[in-house]
Structures are given as C-alpha cells and as structure tokens.
Amino acid sequence: MNVTSQNYLLTLNNQQKEAVMHNDGPLLILAGAGSGKTKVLTSRVVHLIETQKCFASQILCVTFTNKAANEMRDRILKSLSAKSSSLPWLGTFHSISNKILRKHAEAVGLKSSFTILDTLDQLRLIKNIIEAENIDIKKISPKLVASFIDDWKNKGLTPNEIKINNSNYITDTSLKIYTIYQNRLKIMNCVDFGDLILHCVTIFKKFPDILGIYHANFKYILVDEYQDTNFIQNIWLNFLSSKNNNLCCVGDDDQSIYSWRGAEVKNILNFDKINKNTKVIKLEQNYRSTQNILDTASFLISHNEDRLGKKLWSENSKGSLVEINCYNNGYDEAVAIADEIEKNLSKKTSLNQIAILVRAAFQTREFEDRFIKINLPYRVVGGLKFYERSEIKDAIAYLRIVYQQSDDLAFERIINTPKRSIGEATLKEIHNISKTSNLNLEQASIVYCEQENEKNKTIINLKKIITNFQIWRQLSNQTSHYELMEKVLDESGYTTMLLNERTPEAEAKLENLKELIISMKNYENLQGFLENISLQTSAEEEWLGEKINLMTIHAAKGLEFDVIFLPGWEEGLFPHQRSIDEKGHIAIEEERRLAYVAITRSKKELFISFVNNRRIFANKKDKEIDWMPTLPSRFIEELPKENINIKNNFNNYKEQDFDFNQDQLIQQPTRSPGWQRYQKAKNNNVILTKKISYSNNKTNFKVGEGVIHEDFGQGKVIHIEDNKLIIIFKKYGEKKIIDKFIKKINE
DNA sequence: TAACAACGCTTTTTT
DNA sequence: AGCGTTGTTA
C-alpha cells in the first residue's frame, strides 16, 4: 500500500479514523449531526477496498434514499485509486431487496418479472378488493387498510401469522383484506414496497442455501441512518450479517424521525446488546454549524427524555444569533422570507445554499407563489415526484400491460384513458368474468367481446385496444423500449387526447412524456426500465442552476445548507396536531427530533418563524378564507435565549392598530380573524404571541388533576413543565397551555 | 350507459 | 386546490 492511496485518512479526526480502520466484528457509530458520518462511511468503504480486505462487490452498503446512495457512490468512486471498480451492492433497502428478489422470485411463488406497485397502485388494489367483497367503503377507508398492511409487513407478519388482540371490525376487516390482497398480488405477479423486504426475509428463513450465497459474498455490511430501520429491516440485516458479523451501523438516535413508518429506535439503542463484542464509537465533534446553531439544537433536543445522550461540540465560530420572527399570517411570512433572501442574502450567498424547510409539503405553496411573483428561482426537492404524475403513470401502465398480461391494475388504469366508451358497467362485467372463470382482465375482456353484440361501440373499441396490446407485445421484441413507448402513446390515442385539450396543463404533460422517453434511454431494455422504475422516486433531480431549495424537513435529512429558514413553527402545525392526537408524548419527542434535524441542517445562518393566523384552505363557494388563529410552537420556548434574537415583527403591526388593510392580496370586507383574535386576546388577557415567556415559575397544578379552559372546556393534566401544562381536553385533544389560563375544575 | 358538471371533503412526514 | 363522489345530461 503506498502513501497516496491513503489520502482518505488524512482529514479524519481520531474517532473517525478509528471507525474507518476498525477491522472485523460489529461496529456501531453514534454520529451526531454534522459529525462527518457520510465521510466516515465512504472512507471506510474505500479503506476496505484499498487495503484489500475485500472486493468492492463484496461490500453491502445500505441507505434509505436513492439520493444518499448516489452521493455515497460518487464519493467512494472518486476516492478509489482503481477507477474501474463499481459498487453493485450499494443502494437502498428496497433496491437491494429488489435485486435479490429478482434472482429468487420463484422461492416465494413469483416470477422474476414481477412489477413493483407504488402507494397509489396499492390503494387502488385495496379499493378494488373492498368493492369486490361488498365491504362498505364508508366504514373502512383504503388508506387505513393500507396502513394496517404496511404496519404488519414492517413487523414481518404475513396474514396467517397475525393474532389480533383487541378484535374489532376495522382490524378484522383489514386482516381479511390483507389475505385477499396478498393473493391478488401473487396472481398479478406484483409486489408492494413492504413485500420487497419481507419476501427476502422469508427466503433467507426458508432457504439456507440461498442465504449461504449472500453470506459467502457479503464480507462487510454497512448501514446508514440506522436509527430509521424498522423491525423487518433489522431482521433482514441480521440474516445477512449473521455469518461474518461484520456489520457496521451508523446512526443518531436524536435524528430518528420515521417511527410512523415503523422505525424502531430500539434497534440502535440495543445494538451492542444483541451483537456481541460490539465496538461503539461516538462522533461528537460537529464540523457543520456555528456555535449558536449547535447550541440551539442541543438545548432543544435536551428536552427529550428518551435518548442516549451525546455532547456535541465544535471549534467553529459563534456566528450570528438564530433569528426568531413572528408574522401576522403565512403570506407575510413568505413575503418577509423572500425579501430577506432577495435583499440580504442573494448578494453574499449562492441561492443553492439557501433552503426553506417545512413540516408539511403543502406549506411550500405560499413560498412558490411569492418566488414566482418576484422572480426568484427555486426548486421543490422531492415534492413533485416525476413518476407519480398521472400522465407518466398512464404511459407506464401501457407498457406494464404490454409487458405482463396479468397486470390487472395497469389494465384498469388505461383501458378507458383516453375515453373509449368502456365505462363502469362494462368493467364490472369484465370483472365478473374474470372472477368466475379465473382469468385476468385482458383474457376476460376477450371472452366478454365474444358474448356481446359486435356492433356495439364499446365492444368495437374494446376489441381494438386489446388487438393493439397484442400488436405492441409482438413489437416489444423487435423495437427498443423507448420507440415502443412513442408508438404506444400515438397509437393508443393518448397523445391525440392531450393535443385536443389545448390547455397549458396538457402541453406540460406532453413535455413530461417527452422527458420520460428521453429518460428511458438510460435503461437497457423494457424489462430493465419496468423493474426499476417504481423505486426511482425522481427523475435525475435537477440540482443544476442557481435556485432556492424548498422541501420538507424529512426530505432534508442528510443535507446541509449555509442558510436555513424554518417557517410555520406553530402549535398544531409543528408539532403537528395529527401526530399529537395519534401518539401523544412519544410523538412530541419525535417532532422535537424533527426540529433538531431541521436546525442542524444549517451551517451559518438560521431563521425560525411563526405566524398568528394560518390560512387553512380557500373555500371557493363564498370566497371566504378559512383562518386558524395559532399559537407559537412549544419548541420556540424551548430554545436557549442566549443564542437567539427575537425580532418582533408583530409589534410593527400593533402600532398601526393591527389592521390588516394594507394586505392587498387578502381583501376582506370584515375585520380579519387576526384582528378579531387580537381584540379578544387583549380583552381576555390571553397569551399573546409576542410575549414569549421564559419564566420558570412553578405551578400548583398536579398531574392527573381535572381542569377547565375557557375555549377548550374540560380536560385533564397529563404532564407539567414549569408553569406549562399539557392537558388532554375532552373535545380538543392534547394541548400545551400556560397555567394562568387554566382553572381547577372544582373551583 | 357513458360523459360531463357540480359538489364536497380533505392535508404529515416516504421507500 | 385537487380529487373523488354524486347528480345531470345526451
């Protein structure tokens, strides 16, 4: 080994170096935010290859997102001295499972050509089953069933392994649907996301010889974002690592933000207990953020009880204080943030280094509107998923049915798009034939056509499209997949349909289809394209050009920017009411971790803001705007005051008597709700958002005590922090309220 | 019976 | 604001 080949070691600190050079045996790296986690992982892979511990093809490296996988691949390949290496087993849990499952599909009763259903396909299938089984859709929604099925799969449970404890209509019906759902998937030769992992585990369990192949191949296993693995993913890992025991996991319990998807923090908390002789290395030096940002994040996360605890430190400069802003409404907030970017930041910072991170995807809209208006370029990251657009899904559905006749979901999707007079009633007939004669929908359609009057318009159209399927199927063996796509779009009438619409939307769709055809050229053939498309969340994300980044906090995980804006820190939005309702305390801790992730994305400057009135959605009918008066997020109060600077924009408006009339875009005949709220607050002495209290007063309320609140009615105290009470109200669920607005119930 | 228009209900986070 | 469901028309 020569010296130059060890360049990757030069810039590492001692802990990082120890992690990179660790030889065999289980290794757990607890890596705080910004501590060089990716660098350690990539360096370790490079180290293993350069020191000839194994070949590149013998390393299994698992990430959660394609983005992370791509970045890691780039970085590793750049550092390797032998440029010819490739990393065939670097990818997401799902993409690697896909690869494994294609090789051994028969072992679980599938054909290697199986199709991967996305969430929308999944919902459609569930809905079909609900209809076919005559279950009342009003009693149980497909979404709910889907979440049950996902939960079960995340726990590694197949339908016959499930034992329902507290049996009720919802769980029983969901289980019944789950059973049918799995059968339908098998018949259609389809899998969903959960199946990719679960089928692999089933294979590992049932076929030791197959598992042996992977034991022999995977000398080292590395896992990124380990805190977000769920039960079944962990089992998956344990199977694969059980022979060599060279499992290296990197994670941060404070950044666990996917429990709603089944992630179990206990995987990381118990790692060293389950894997004997685990070496644990903590990376606690932060290289990313300024002191102020880091302190803010650390102080906030210290409010969580359930954590391993790390002491992040940094040699970086103090930097500027974290700015806290308060605005009247979401529109003002968007205007102010756009102004800040336009006037102050765009001169010294690249727009690419600025990001606005939101709790919920819909929040980006207000910013988009503003940016369009003042002509600031932006990109929404992860927002509009290319392959989930309806026209793209339609196009792919055509290819799916051509590729695989059994794909009933694809058949149903496009059989009447464009319109061919094949309506609901016809489809129902076809379904009946399919069910009684055990045929797929295409075969059933042929039977149906023979039964019916051949002069019927519907029958003529149906015959025609099925003939087309057959012609295209022939053609798919002779022409390239992208030429086939072009032909299918033209001959099916899809292109004509869009052309006839003559709307800007239709034109955009045509453009997207062109883009699809171009991107198809990246795949070798039809099979390669269809096998991978469902796992590809976005077409080559457009990171080109100078643009402001808009995304959800979840999507920002693993990324960093010079300047971060965090709007919408309001109770109900962040922390999100729905998560509070569903899981209470545990959810608050997860929301807090989410806030921690958000803050720690920032390298230099951080702006947090909240508004007094959040617009929910516009009601078209009476053109009134629905407003929700909001309180600042409890997380605002949990920030360390010596690191933040509260800029009170609220006061400016108060001097103008808090009148919203200068707000030109929202013209309202009456006083705005914000004004009304202000008046009410003034009279009732209710908490005003401008007064952010840091008092440490102790309260004389007790946990468990019954209380009453003017607006929220009766409730019970379930948690106390200083003078702030968390109360479950009978009607409004959990809220956090300062004690002086609460009365004891018997007073 | 299919296509089109009007109504109305919902919005967390994702491979 | 966008989609699915329901109601109306051809």
How do the helices and strands line up, and which of them pair or pack?
Elements lengths: L6 H4 L3 H8 L5 E5 L5 H14 L8 E5 L2 H14 L10 E3 H11 L11 E2 L2 H14 L9 H13 L14 H20 L1 E2 L1 H14 L1 H10 L2 E4 L7 H11 L5 E5 L14 H4 L1 H4 L4 E5 L1 E2 L4 H11 L11 E2 L7 E8 H19 L5 E5 L5 H11 L3 E3 L9 H14 L4 H7 L9 H14 L3 H11 L5 H20 L4 H11 L2 H8 L2 H17 L5 H8 L14 E5 H4 L4 E6 L10 H7 L1 H15 L2 E17 L6 E5 L4 H4 L6 E4 L1 H7 L17 H12 L21 E4 L3 E9 L2 E6 L3 E6 L3 E3 L3
Parallel strand pairs: 1-7, 1-8, 2-3, 2-6, 4-5, 6-7, 9-10, 11-16, 11-18, 12-14, 12-15, 13-14, 15-16
Antiparallel strand pairs: 16-17, 19-20, 19-23, 20-21, 21-22
Helix pairs in contact: 2-3, 3-4, 5-9, 6-7, 6-8, 7-8, 9-11, 14-28, 15-16, 17-18, 17-21, 19-20, 20-21, 21-22, 23-24, 27-28
The structure holds a DNA duplex (15 and 10 nucleotides).
DSSP strand tally:
23
The number of helical runs is 31
| C-alpha end-to-end distance | 80 Å
Considering DSSP H and I runs of 4 or more, what fraction of the residues is helical? Answer: 40-55%
Structural class: alpha/beta
Largest sheet: 8 strands, mixed
Shape category: globular
Rg, Å, rounded: 28 Å
**Strand proportion:** 15-25%
- Mean pLDDT, rounded to whole units? 83
Show unreliable segments.
Answer: 619-624, 651-698
